[in-house]
Design goal:
Layout: H1 2-21, H2 43-74
Helix pairs in contact: 1-2
């Protein structure tokens, strides 16, 4: 369980970094200016790479969130709705509001 939480933390930090690396209109900081393998490291290629890495990281983050939620709910016998305080309108009568006196 601790390992999954550490992976989730790493994914969160990586996702923040990847989002911050991307500029407006997907210009981003880029990973290099030269013509890399198949244009992968060109200005447009790096924007596509950053976009794909961000989408992959976000997907992994969401999957890990669901997995952690499932693991957290397996050990719990209570439903979240059972933990909410019950509302009994018959048991408690609302008190009259008190109007403060002005001096």
């Amino acid at each position: 369980m601790i390992t999954l939480i550490i992976i989730q933390l790493i994914l969160a930090i990586l996702l923040v970094i990847l989002v911050l690396l991307q500029g407006t209109d997907n210009e981003g900081l880029g990973l290099g200016g030269g013509g890399g393998i198949g244009g992968m490291m060109s200005a447009r290629g790096s924007a596509n790479l950053l976009s794909r890495l961000t989408a992959l990281t976000a997907t992994l983050f969401m999957v890990m969130s669901v997995i952690l939620t499932i693991f957290a709910s397996v050990g719990s016998e209570k439903n979240i709705l059972e933990s909410l305080p019950s509302i009994n309108s018959e048991a408690e009568s609302p008190e009259e509001p008190v109007i403060p006196e002005n001096n």
